[in-house]
Amino acid sequence: SDLETQRETRNFEQLPLQPGDVKNAYVVHIESPNDFYIQLSETYPELEQMMAKIAEVYSGLADDLSPGDLVVGHPVCAQFSEDAGWYRAIIHSMPSDHKVEVHYIDYGNSDVIPLTDLRQLSSRFFSLPMQAIHCCLDLPRVESFKENVEEKELKVKFLSTERGKWKVNLYDDNGIIGSSDEALFAAASEYLDDIFEKREFLQPQITQEMKQNVYVSHIVSPDEFYVQFATGLDELTYLSEEMNRFYSLHQIGRAHV
What we know:
By secondary structure, the protein is of the alpha+beta class. The protein has helices at 2-9, 44-58, 145-149, 181-192, 233-256, and strands spanning 22-32, 35-40, 75-79, 86-93, 99-104, 110-114, 118-119, 133-137, 154-162, 165-172, 175-177, 214-221, 224-229. 25% of the residues lie in helices and 32% in strands. Strands 1-2-8-10-9 form a five-stranded mixed barrel. The protein has a five-stranded antiparallel β-sheet with strand order 6-5-4-3-7. Helix 4 (181-192) crosses helix 5 (233-256). The model is unreliable at 1-9, 189-196 and 252-257 (pLDDT under 50).
């Protein structure tokens, strides 16, 4: 049947993240510092557009699922009890014939809802990858985690994945979240091993006739001056902050030796 085909072939895609990526993000759901979800700032406009379309399509749609259609892991559109909105979800478990536990894939939270609050998910709503990224802190020695991250745009550094969860470092304007200075220094010290292996900086890739937006950063004369690519300024700012944080901590660490 069409439904069987949908079960077999329809899955949500993951966002294409790599270890070492640094992104701006918001924490959207927290169980603990070892179990929370984030949304990336860069894809949020697409999520907003999709949510508006889902609200339009599902606000008047009649019930179209029966208990026989329900399979754990099956994608659905599910109403959220607290705001009555419709969201993309996956069936997590079936506590009874009339109740279903769902996981909302774009926000990270779960809910037990009546079967009547589920609908088939239209194929048009599969193209956007899952927006909630499951994370845990790399250095989870933290107090007041919720207060430190709520409703605040953060920098997230993705380190590695384990069992579908990203180990991350979170940064706000005051520095890293989730560790004491000692723990941070220990983590930073690992990078010292690489210092003597790196002997030269990478050169920017520049070709003839190449056009780039730039800023003039230093002038010796009209015949000799330096520019920076506009596209690299965010990374340069982040690098400067990281270096300041790293070397100030390294100084603190040496003072204790």
